[in-house]
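pipeline stage [seq->struct] | target=Polygalacturonase | organism=Handroanthus impetiginosus | residues=269
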Amino acid sequence: MERKMNPRSRNAFFSIHFILSLPSNFPIATSEPVLDTEGHPVRIGQKYFVVPPLPGAGGGLTLSSTKGHCPYEILQMLNASIGGLPVTFSSVNPKDKVVNLDTDFNIRFIDFKGRCPESKVWKFDANEQRIRRETRIGNWFKNIQKENNKNRTSYKLQYCPSPKLCENKCRVLCGDIGVVVYESKHLAKPSLIKISKVTLKNIRGTSATQEVMSFLCSSAKPCENIEVGDVDLTYTGTLGPATTKCDNIKPILVGKQNPPICATPAQSA
């Protein structure tokens, strides 16, 4: 994430895995502060950009009405050079000055003007009605998990608020944040914007939903030259094996693919 208020730099980023999980042997110190890419603690109320930690994994995050109506959905920019929309963090504890690994916090998009009236605070929602019904505190996140990737410190963000937020009267359900490649399939008219020459690599971890990865491209302008490499995603539920979904795309596959990406993709040489 970019931190605009940092006097030492205008380009400090907070690196985060959108779906990667933490190895079981990696120690977590829950009072440890979350750091931006300059090594400074992530501060409550300051401005950051959320970006993936590894090259080739895409850009930052933005808001879009992908289905042609409100509310907005959170989307990742495919272009790695685009930082997306800035966000701020707020803690359940008004005395907190920085975000720690064990902090219950909200994430809010800022510097965005749109037609949807809903709050720009991130909110967890799942495809299963059971989760929507039983989750009463869907905008609180916790369990930031730390990981080292090629000498870079990055973090996995998980929706998993403390039961104390609803005074132990509700059932708290945790869930990972996944990534969807989405190109306006559900608009009234097919999008005329073509997505091409995009590389997605090093996508690993676990998913709370069975459909772990989706590529939904326009029927008018199918995606072309999309390279997907080194995918290893595991579904943690009980509905069967992990699946993927592909519309109007034939990706070029490189390296390991678990689960298989698309039914009849174009394989690389």
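stage status: PASS
auto-comment: The longest strand covers residues 196-207. Residues 183-269 form one domain.
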